[in-house]
Amino acid sequence: DYAGDKTEVPTNPAVTEAAETNAARLAGAHDIDRKFRDFGDTAFFQAYYEAMAESWAIKSDTKAAEFLTGNASAVTGTPAVTDLLDAVEVGAQAVEDNTNTTATFALVNPGDWRAYVTGLTRNDVPAFIDLLDFQPGNFVRSNLVPAGAVIVGARGAVSWYERAGSPIRVET
User: Fold this and answer.
1) Which pLDDT tens digit goes with each residue over 54-93?
2) How many C-beta atoms lie closer than 10 Å to residue 29's C-beta?
3) How many CA atoms lie within 13 Å of 166's alpha carbon, on the beta-carbon side?
4) C-alpha separations of 163 from 29, 126, 166 in Å
5) Are 120 and 82 in contact (CB under 8 A)?
6) Other C-beta atoms within 10 Å of 124: how many?
């Protein structure tokens, strides 16, 4: 609060914490028969580079999920959850309470996800799911999440830097 009229502006010290890490490196190499280059098989190389980019994306997503699961904090002091959506709501509330930020994603165990969604119809999806800002696309299935657990977070809580564009940088 500020009293106004040239009174001293309230202030407090800014708190920061330095964080350093080394860039992770990812490399792949394949011995490809010269015939694909010599005979101009552009379809092969198009498919090859698309597959390599997809492989890189999967590995990058896995590293991100490993980081998130390794750094998640348990939510304590809440009533027992009844199902997956309830667990996500508890996690989303914890994110909001601790960061004053709306949760934007949930990592879930694939078995838990399947158990929850099996047999659901459009009529079964709770109307209040919109209030959580969670649509089906906000749920990410990951084998790195233990069964019976969910990891709920806000996208802005973690910075994940990668080079823009194609990850393919060298051809020899």
Assistant:
1) 998 888 888 888 988 888 988 888 778 888 888 888 898 8
2) 7
3) 10
4) 19, 39, 8
5) no
6) 8
